[in-house]
Amino acid sequence: LTGAQPEASWWTLAGTLAVVVASFSYAAASLIAQGRMAGTGPLALSAATMIGAAVVLVPFGLVQLPSSAPDAATVACVVALGVAGTAIGLLLFFRLINRYGSARAALVTYL
After folding, report:
1. SS3 breakdown of the chain: % helix, strand, coil, rounded to 5?
2. The whole model's pTM is what?
3. Helices 10-36 and 88-100, packing angle to 10 deg
4. Are the beta carbons of 50 and 90 closer than 8 angstroms?
5. Rounded to whole angstroms, how far apart are CA atoms 55 and 62?
6. End-to-end CA distance of the chain
């Protein structure tokens, strides 16, 4: 139970609410993707998702720019996580939705 502790702050409750809203958004996105991707391939959906996320997140990143540029190893790690962890993951996820439907594809999140 979040927020029931006397020492819990507003930020604790706000963080828990953000997790709940994200969960509902994740479920809604799967249903919306299944309904709208009839003529669209997984690669196009993955690219659109990544571009949309970049458009939303870049302004927040620009506000928090570090004082010095990161080294090459750090940049390589971020690129590897973005490509391997996110882009390929989204590509596989949208392929699952396309082939098996959103209900079965959502089961992947429970693994």
Report:
1. 80, 0, 20
2. 0.60
3. 50
4. yes
5. 12
6. 24
Which residue type, as a one-letter code, is found at position 101? G
Q: Which tokens in the block code for residue 107?
A: 């089961």
Do the Cβ atoms of 17 and 3 come closer than 8 Å?
no
Residue 5, sorted as left (phi over 0), alpha (psi -120 to 50) or beta, turns out to be beta
Position of tokens 């249903």? 31
Q: Letter for the amino acid at 98?
A: N
What's the rounded Cα separation, in Å, for the pair 96 and 98? 5
Give the CA radius of gyration of the chain. 18
The amino acid at residue 42 is P
- Our CA angle for 70, 55, 33, nearest 5°, is 125
Q: Is 43 in contact with 91 (CB distance < 8 Å)? A: yes
What's the pLDDT tens digit per position in 24-69?
Answer: 887 787 778 777 777 777 788 778 888 988 899 999 989 998 888 8
